[in-house]
Amino acid sequence: MASIFEKLWRLSAAAFVLKALFAAIAANGLLLAFILLRRAYRKRYFAKRDMRVYELRKRWDALISGEIPFESWRRNAFDREIVETIVLDAFEAAGPEESARLLKFLRASGLIEKRIFEARQLTGWRRMRALVALGRTRAPEGIPALAEGLRDLAQETRLAALRGLGRMASPQAAEEILAWLGEQGLTVPDLPLQSALLQCCVERPQLLLPHVQNAKGHLREVLGRVLGDVATPSLGSDLLQFVGDDLDELRAAAARAMSQSPSGLAHHVLNELARDPVWFVRLRAIVSLGKLSERRAIPALLRGLADSNRLVRLRAAEALVGLNTEMVPIFERVVAAQDRYGLYAYLAALENADLRVQLETELQASTRVSEEDKKRLQNVLQVGRLPAEEPATVGSAIKSPAGQG
Question: Global pTM?
Answer without folding.
Answer: 0.72
